[in-house]
Amino acid sequence: MATNKGEGAKAVDKTETNPIEEKALGCSIGNLSDNKDVFTRADKIDFKSWDLQLDKHLSKAWSRDKDVSLVTKKDEWEIDLAKLDIRHVIAHGTYGIVYRGVYDNQDVAVKVLDWGEDGIATAAEAAALRASFRQEVAVWHKLDHPNVTKFIGASMGTSNLKIPSKDSTSESNNSLPSRACCVVVEYLPGGTLKNFLIRNRRKKLAFKVVIQLALDLSRGLSYLHSKKIVHRDVKTENMLLDARRNLKIADFGVARVEAQNPKDMTGETGTLGYMAPEVLDGKPYNRRCDVYSFGICLWEIYCCDMPYADLSFAEVSSAVVRQNLRPEIPRCCPGLLASIMRKCWDAHPDRRPDMDEVVRLLEAVDTSKGGGMIPDDQSPGCFCFTRRGP
Predict the structure, then answer these.
(1) Do 81-186 and 193-378 fold alike per CATH?
(2) Are 163 and 86 contacting, i.e. CB atoms less than 8 angstroms apart?
(3) Phi, psi dihedral angles at 180 (to 5 degrees)
(4) Do residues 199 and 123 touch, judged by C-beta distance below 8 A?
C-alpha cells in the first residue's frame, strides 16, 4: 500500500533512538525527532559509515571495561590483609625485615620488603626491588615440596599493612609506606641451618644427621631443577629447619626460571664462598651453579665450620676462579662423602652431577657405622683443620 508524506513522517517520528546511538552515528541522519516533515530515503543512507562509527564507539567501551577489570582483579597469590597479624622481628635481611606473625590462625613468617621510600633508594632501585618481589612470588607460589618452604601468600603496594610500634609499651601500630609489600610463608621454629651448624661447631653432628640434612637439601634442589628453576643463592643461611629438624629451602629472591640459552643467565648472582667459578667470572651458567653451591654446603654441614674462614672475599673470589680453591676436606671424612663434594664443586659445570644423581649417591651412603666429623677435644691425633687456605 502506498503511503503519503504525512504517514511517512509519522512512521519516522515513532522510531526510537537512544542518546549513545545518536552520538555514535553523528550527522549522517541527524536528529529525526527535530523535524517531523523530513525523512531520509534508504538509498541515501551511508550504512558503512554507521558501522564504522558504531564499531569505534563499542571498542572504546569494551577497552574501558577491560582496563577496570584489570585494575580490580587480584592476583591468585594475594592474601587477605585483614587475616594477617604481624607480631615481632625475627631477622633482618638485605632488602627488608622478617617478622613472626599469624595468618588465618596459622603461625607464619612475614618478609616485608623495603622499597627505599625513605629517599635513599633511586626510582630505578625501587623499581628493581618491586621486580625482584614479583619474581620471587611468581616462582614461589607454584611450588609444592616437603623440602621447600610452604608459600602462603603475598601483598604488594598496600597501605593497609601494619607492624607493631617500635615502642613495645605503645598500643598503636605504624603503617608502612603505600608501596610496601610482604611475602607470607610457613613459620619454621628451627631457624636457619647456618645457626644450627654454629651451635654444633664444637661437638659436630652425628653422621646420620649429616646425611639426613644433605638429603633434604639435595631433594629440594632436585625438585626445583625439575621445574626449571635455578635458586642461584644456595647457602646454609637460606635453609630453614622445622621442629623435627627437617630442612626446607627458603628465600627465592634471586631465583629464576632457567633460560634455554645459558648466555641469558650471567652476572655475579649469589653469595661469595658459595658461588661457582663460572658465576664469579661472569660467564654463562645454568642449574649446575646450584650443584656447586650444594657441594660447599655439604662440606659445611659435615664440618660445622665456615669455608675460607681466614680469607677475604676478594681473595676467595680470585683463588676459586684462578687457583681452583676449594674447602679442605678433613681426613676423617668418609671417602664416598668426600667424593660427592669433589664432584659437585668441579671447576667444569658439565662434569658436575645433576641433583637427582646426587640424591641417589647420598641415599647409597651407609650411616650405620658412624663416620661423622671428629671433635678436636675428643681426638688429639686428628689434624683435619691445622691448615687453611689454598
Answers:
(1) no
(2) yes
(3) -65, 155
(4) no
Paired residues of 154 in beta bridges: 78, 183
* Whether residue 373 has pLDDT greater than 80: yes
Which carries the bigger pLDDT value, residue 120 or residue 274? 274
C-alpha cell at 318: 680470585
**Measured in whole angstroms, how far is the alpha carbon of residue 233 from the centre of its chain?**
12
Query: 185: burial class by Cβ within 10 Å (0-12, 13-18, 19+)?
Result: buried
Q: How far apart are CA 200 and CA 206, in angstroms?
A: 10
233 is catalytic: yes
Rounded CA gap, 78 and 184, in Å? 10
Considering the domain 193-378 in this protein, what is its CATH number?
1.10.510.10
Q: Look at 65-69, 303-307, 308-312 and tell me which has the smallest mean pLDDT.
A: 65-69
The model's pLDDT over 38-56, given as tens digits with 9 standing for 90+, comes to: 555 656 666 667 667 776 6
DSSP 8-state symbol, 78: B
Q: Could you tell me if 237 and 301 are in contact, meaning their C-beta atoms sit under 8 angstroms apart? A: no
- For the record, the C-alpha cell of 92 comes out as 633482618
Of residues 238, 257, 292, the one with CA closest to residue 98: 238
How far apart CA 390 and CA 367 sit, in angstroms, is 30
Nearest Cα neighbor of 230 from 287, 289, 292, 280 is 287
180 has pLDDT over 50: yes
Region 82-102: mean pLDDT is 84
- The answer to whether 365 touches 375, Cβ cutoff 8 Å, is no
User: Which residue in this structure is represented by grid cell 628465600?
Assistant: 251
Distance CA 149, CA 196 (A): 17
- The set of cell numbers assigned to 157 is 603496594
Q: Which of 13, 37, 216, 233 is catalytic?
A: 233
Helix (H) or strand (E) run with residue 320 in it: helix 313-322
3-class SS string, 259-317: CCCHHHCCCCCCCCCCCCHHHHCCCCCCCHHHHHHHHHHHHHHHHCCCCCCCCCHHHHH
Residue 27 has pLDDT above 60, yes or no: no
Residue pair 108/184 in contact by the 8 Å Cβ criterion: yes
User: What are the sequence ranges of the domains in the chain?
Assistant: 5-70, 81-186, 193-378
The three-class DSSP label of residue 203 is coil
Mean pLDDT of the region 321-333: 94
Domain 81-186 carries which CATH code? 3.30.200.20
For residue 293, which of 245, 332, 235, 341 has the smallest C-alpha distance? 235
